[in-house]
Model the fold of this input.
Amino acid sequence: MAKKSSKPVKRRPRADAQRNRELILEAAKEAFTRYGAEASLDDIARQAGVGAGTLYRHFPTRDALIEGVYRNGVEQLAAAERRFTTTMSPIEALRAWMLLFVDHIAAKHIIAPALNSVAGGPTRLYEGSRGVIQGAIDALVRRAIKSGEVRKDLDPSDLLRALIGVAYVPVGPDWKQSARRLVDILIAGSRPVK
Done:
């Protein structure tokens, strides 16, 4: 007689449960942006069009929801790398991803006060996302090098450091436009020397 495995089978979430989770994360990002870490969870549920029980089933604590918002942004960066690779030329994919990363930095600026309220601070979250982000830009740069659209000596970490440096520039009304211009400058400087 075969022994049954005691490990539970991990099932994919139902489509409606996944949709509810995404709606909650989007509403939470907006609420934390507007009201900070103390935004009303009931208001977030209402804005997402779900009941409070649904919100708490997905995110049992405020910290879990704040972490979820941040991790969702990182997951979107990883998914974008895969999507851009299949739909764009190597240089276009690299540029589009870098622009998305600028948006990620902008969102991180906005929700930073909420992230700072998470138990243990945001460092743990940032550490966990570093590999995902580095992996995405590494793949994009390797592809662009292979195509000949960027210099062979381009180090993906250099591009990432330049973009992260944008995060330390004081946020003003034209911060995002300036950061987007920086992406174009970095792309131009990454082209092969002729």
